[in-house]
Amino acid sequence: MDELQKALNDKSLTISTLPEKGRCLFTTRAFFPGEVIISENPYVCVPNKNKESPQSKCEWCFSSRNLKKCSACHVVWYCSSKCQKSDWKLHSVECRALSKIDKDRLKSLTPSIRLMVRLYIRRKLENEKIFPTTVMDNYKHVEPLVSHMSEVDEKQLVLYAQMANLVNLILQWPDSEVNIKEIAESFSKLACNAHTICDSELRPLGTGLYPVISIINHSCLPNSVLVFEGRLAVVRAMQHIPKGTEVLISYVEIAGSTITRQKALKEQYFFTCTCPRCMKLGQSDDIQESATLEGYRCKDSKCNGFLLRDSDNKGFICQQCGLLRDKEEIKNITNEVKLISEKASTSFSSGHKAEASVAYKMVEELQMKLYHPFSINLMRTRETLLKIFMELQEWKEALLYCRLTIPVYERVYPRCHPLLGLQYYMSGKLEWLLGETEAAVRSLTKALDILRITHGTLTPFMLELLSKLEEARAEASYMLHSQDED
Ligand SMILES: C[S@@+](CC[C@H](N)C(=O)[O-])C[C@H]1O[C@@H](n2cnc3c(N)ncnc32)[C@H](O)[C@@H]1O
After folding, report:
1. Is 188 close to ligand 1, i.e. is its CB under 6 Å away?
2. Fold of domain 413-486
3. Which of 271, 274, 278, 279 gets mutated to test ligand 1 (max ligand atoms within 8 A of its CB)?
4. What's in the keyword line of the UniProt record (predicted)?
5. Can you give the pLDDT at residue 103?
6. Helices in 172-233 by DSSP H: which ranges?
7. What fold is seen in the domain 1-41+210-281?
8. Count of CA atoms in the C-beta half-sphere (13 A) of 169
9. Are 52 and 245 in contact (CB under 8 A)?
10. Which residues in the chain land under pLDDT 70?
């Protein structure tokens, strides 16, 4: 038995191989909800830097505070000398390579390129015995990761080859040490195996490769959840998992129709999901769910029926009241939504938040006419409005939009999903701020019930939630006593 399998045995886990899935991780004992199944440090990771997340972050811990640039390469940031020291073995080699590249080329230095540069440096340092290996931390576990290279389309292959060339130029190693084709294949591996590192509120911070956790397969009805405590990846059981069960997480956003989920899985991971939700594809309840989440609303604003395309292709028929919705009318509203959404998005990204809030409200109004009340598109617009009003510190409006999203979250996410827990948490915090103490106690309790399972109980994030709930409970009970005395 190999070392990794032995280490996994000690964690009550085992690796099996199934013809339709490849490697899978199975439990060898039962796990209770909230229990940590496996945790792993990244083999390599990098902070994200893009339009959505333009802030620089510490290379080691992803903090955005007290950052200082590496004085030699001027590319990498650290928040403390402790973080810089922890990263030094790897960065010292990377730093020399980055210092040599010219300014123009620096512009092409995306997080993916940096992740690959780091991967090859780590492998080299491991081979030279400068970087120690452990049972979990070993390039040996990167080798068997799936790449799906033969399924990648021509355009993507060209892109991988260009990226591999850039990595090669940065490393400037002899041909005996790197091979462009191999680097291109490693890019394909990263696309199917790397994970987005998020903070406790599931905001993306970076990308990391966790080769052992990468053995875990996908389900749209997962029994486990992957969260991060700093750079440590932690997989927790979301429900009771019996002995001999496959550990499954979700790779994609599961709020969506079966077709949408399957498309996302096929495009990035090259497989057709056969989870119990996907097996319902084409069945009447699956058709109803897709039409509700991604389809149009009934012409009669009081009717909550779902619509299906009519046989004459004139439009869509409400399956509850039989009213026809003309496709031209739908097309006109869709075009209007598209136009105003573009304006709204430009205002938001250029920092004109008040202007953006007005435009997004117009989008919301039109989408309410267009889509079913449980529409994902409408929910996304309301999430954006929530974000804008939070940034504008308009708490009442923020609470209104937070509350509007919750029924859709309750419908599209499993009972114990972290995003549902976080939405209850947001609602609780806003209610507490606005003096709606009893509502805050209810929301914070619901948040705690979910997040204690998905996030554990001991992290600073959870301790803060617990203390907020205690404060709200104390105030609610004080108010009750004061009323009694009156
Ligand atoms: C992160 S890897 C998971 C481990 C992989 N099975 C292996 O052998 O290394 C992702 C790949 O696993 C496969 N996979 C994951 N979930 C699957 C599922 N539910 N059904 C079929 N294949 C799946 C796909 O090939 C996917 O690209």
Report:
1. no
2. 1.25.40
3. 271
4. Metal-binding, Zinc, Zinc-finger
5. 82
6. 180-193
7. Beta-clip-like (2.170.270)
8. 13
9. no
10. 1, 50-53, 486
